[in-house]
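Lecture notes, unit on binding sites. The following record was shown on slide 14. It pairs a sequence with zinc ion.
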Amino acid sequence: MPSVNILVRGIVQGVGFRPFVYQLAHLYGLTGNVKNSSTGVYIHLEGTSSHIDSFLEDLQNKNPSLSKIEEIQTTSAQVDGDTTFSILTSTLSEDAFTLLSPDIAICPDCLNDLNNIEDSRRYHYAFTNCTNCGPRFSIIKKLPYDRPLTTMQNFNMCPSCKEEYENPLDRRFHAQPTCCKACGPALSLLDFQGNTLLGTDPITKTRTLIKSGAILAVKGLGGFHLICDATSQKAIQTLRNRKNRPTKPLALMMKDLGTVLQYCCLNTQEEEVLLGNKKPILLLKKKSEQLPYNICFDNPSLGVMLPYTPLHHMLFDEDLTVLVATSANHSGLPMIFKNLEALEELKDIADYFLMHDRDIYIPIDDSVVKVVLGEERVIRNARGYAPSYFHLVSNEVLALGSEFKNTFCISNNNYCFMSQYIGDMDTLETMHHFNNNVNHFKKMYNINPKLIAYDYHPNFSYQDYVKSYAEEKIGIYHHHAHIASCMAENNINRYVIGIAFDGVGYGDDETLWGSEFLVCNLKEFKRCGHLDYFKMPGGDMATLYPWRLAISLLYEAFGEELEGVLPSYLSDKQIAPVLSMLKNNISCPLTCSIGRLFDGVAGLLGFTHKISYEAEACIYLENLALSSPDTDSNYKFVITERDTLYTIDSIILIQGIVHDLSIGCLHTFISRKFHNTLCLIGLEISKKIRNDCGINQIVLSGGVFQNELLFSGLYTLLIQHNFEVITHKLVPCNDSGLSLGQLVIASELIRK
Ligand code: ZN
Ligand code: ZN
Ligand code: FE
């Protein structure tokens, strides 16, 4: 009688894989065993060859929906004479890893349990989960994925849960976080002083409090949210004031699809994303102004997610269908995820706390995605998406990523793992969070990096940390990393034309780049085009106050005559000192960033205040253009060539905008023309580079491509001119994607 050993690698733990194997073995009358190890799932089978073949076929094709098989190795084995098929306890082995499932939103079966009044153990129980859903990444301390190595270790299963856990035919067979009212975590509701509110059921009371206008800190899957009634302008304003978040749009959680349809326009792809098992924040077009203006002000889109844990589902009822659900943190700091920390840090923001005693081991934010050009595109990769991984023949490398919107990547010989969104590294708290996560990933995947890849920018917060490393280090240029990240995501390794439209990144001439046309592969790049440099009066101050960039652009275009063309809304600004900086070239770093050009043009078109969140002025400009009637018109521009380096003279462009302002054109129309012009510039330079080097494949990356008008506009033009255009989907085009690019470049550079 034949016998085989099978090793299955991939996302095969914590996703119902062993019960699937068990049931399959029973179906084909096979004996043997299955076990988890840190290399994957091991199966030993004994039976007839035809049954083993059928088993292998089903293993490939009928695997559980959350699993992802990377590889199946089959070897013949000794017959042990097993008489049954059993599930063995896990074994650990050194130098091994398994792929880990992200956290998954509650599944339809568990939702039924939650709403089933007959189910005394799980009816309205906030921690209901099964093999197909629930927490994973956020509660796992170590691999392999087994309950004692998760934050569920402190909860002893009751006999009923244990029975389900041990029954291979049960949906909760080996569901590590499984529990019920009798044995699992419990909710508690506290006031801002930390006193527990007794008497009523915490959830019912929570709903009452939300309806009365209170702000609640609610502990969810990956951290705390601040939650309030999204139909109450007053509650929202209180939240904004207390959180010191004046204008940045707030994310919403809506009761169900029906509610979303009431407020947003939705196509079938968007519906799919919304209803899928990841439940990210999806950016959707607002249907009308039914919700309070202060949720997102003039922004035409809303960030919407559906409830993704049983707890979230229970926050809604017939009258309460839309909630503001924003990450609980102080501006710029990591999200709060521990109970005591929440009580301490959020007591000035939240009126009440709905919390529980299941610890979050690794905090993880909500992901943000948008459907653009018919594809789901990730803007912030976190819950449900992270950790993500890519096949890569590499070494043990750690790529530190970017200063803002940081993620990092770490690789072994076969895979590169990309962390969840970490945040902006300019605070000690985020650096600490970063270090914790790097150590966690090293431990979990058993990787000891021999090489560190980092961004060349001398002012990045992690540079001291880089210096302290004993390992070999490789600096990577920002925009090369952007293009490489998109190449790696799309499995491309040859010469391409890369267009990086971005905020700023440090360039090899020590200026701030951000409108780069590169010819590159994963090893090297040549800069073939960019905008002409312009001055940023006051450096970072110019980023905070876009009107300073407007003055700089006007000065470039009109020199001393600038006062004559100054829009009235800029006349009350402190123009003289800025002009003096420009004239005398004091504290005026040079940039060619498209992001800063957007800022400056936003300033020219009426964005006069200090920005309160990243890219606010760019978004303002895009929103203006979106409300313009469709037009093909554009501004004149001039491309200069010097030794196959193309530069774009923005003076004529700015003069065109000022002319339109002087004849009273609408700002919306001017903005649309400006967007059209940038698309044309992108096309023209791409054509010139194609002529020079014969490359037809174009890779688009950089945070400015989050601007949908620019991205879709340029993409469409390039396709019309027969370019093959490669874009981001899973990996963000913004600086969150940078770490992957750094890692693949570093791997390529050290390859012998
Ligand atoms: Zn479930
Ligand atoms: Zn139980
Ligand atoms: Fe960037």
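Take-home: Residues 667-693 form the longest helix (27 residues).
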